[in-house]
Design a protein that fits this description.
The protein has two helices and seven strands. By secondary structure, the chain is an alpha/beta fold. The chain has a single domain, classed as Hypothetical Protein Aq_1857, Chain: A. The strands form two sheets. Strands 3-2-5-4 form a four-stranded mixed sheet. Strand 4 and strand 5 form a beta hairpin. The two termini are about 20 Å apart.
């Protein structure tokens, strides 16, 4: 399952937590309509609620909705985020590290 860093959770909350948005709002990650055959071509958008088959990831008050294709691709990924000095958000993906015993 996709894991969000603390920074990514904060950015997701800042993007989706607006006065006019319902409490169920989250960030939806879906397969790109422009490149449907490319598993790592993804689209991100705020969504009022998850679609019927979406996987929902909730971490530290941040909600992320994953369409089935995106969920499969992101199952072993970590989502991180940075905000630059101009307020532009940049999301980055990494691979989860296996737990060490």
């Amino acid at each position: 399952m996709l894991v969000l860093t603390e920074a990514a959770a904060e950015v997701v909350k800042s993007v989706t937590d607006t006065p006019q948005a319902p409490d169920s709002t989250g960030l939806r990650i879906s397969q790109s309509a422009q490149e449907p055959g490319n598993a790592n071509a993804l689209e991100l958008a705020a969504a009022a609620e998850p679609a019927i088959n979406d996987e929902v990831v909730e971490i530290a008050g941040a909600r992320v909705f994953l369409d089935p294709q995106a969920a499969a691709y992101l199952s072993d990924k970590v989502l991180d985020a940075q905000v630059d000095s101009e307020g532009q958000v940049r999301f980055m993906l990494g691979t989860q590290r296996p737990p060490t015993d």
